[in-house]
Amino acid sequence: MKILYILLILTSFSMFSQSPKINNHLYDGNEKVKKEDFLGAEVNYRLALSKQSESPKALFNLGNTQYQTKAFDEAAQQFYRTHKFSENKTDKHAALHNMGNVYMKQKEYQKAVESYKSALRNNPSDNETRYNYALAKSLLEDDNKDQKKNNQDKKNKDQKKNEDKNEKSSDQEKQDDDGDEKKNKGEEPNDDKNQDEKPNDTDDKSSKKKNSDARKPGQLSKDQVKSLLEAMNNQEKKVQDKINAKKVKGIPVKTKKDW
Questions:
Q1: Going from the N-terminus, what domains does the chain have, and what CATH number goes with each?
Q2: C-beta separation of 67 from 60 below 8 A
């Protein structure tokens, strides 16, 4: 298991000509760091910087407190400014080493390698920096291998997808060609769907018969018409019978006189 040796160097920077007020703020800040009151310490270091904005010691200590509170972007800025304004290699080495630690926390291994390499230029004998540099290089190589593998997997996946697409398109073109060939030979393409949709003659005749038998609203059925005609004929027959009966009664009967 790889262990990252994080080195937060609490060095005594070369004393610049600073006012007593700056030193007081730095002292108060350092005391709060011992109590792990990092936010309170940050206030004191910022007060020191308000008196002298390019104080390497105030910048470095502010970067350390921000590192402890996981404000890594801000901490990297303070270490960069510390390196910029420092006048000796020892102070530059400390700033670059801690800048490398920030990048390791953010898993920006390429930047970490460059920071540790620059730190070693200022102090080649520092074992902690050498260890962190070797570890950063190893993690960077692993990261590059993983990235390369992921890119290859994505490339293979896209290639397989395109091959499946082309194969599907080729199958469709083959089906279309077979259908055109059958049409040219006078054959109907074997299409189950079309067969299912073809109308059935028997069903069509049955449907027409049903439609002819179905009567419209207000129209008499055949049976009703037949019954009505029979009733009319019977009625007409009765009337005719009555008329004939009356005619018979009206004819005088000639009788022979027997006297």
A1: 20-142 (1.25.40.10)
A2: no
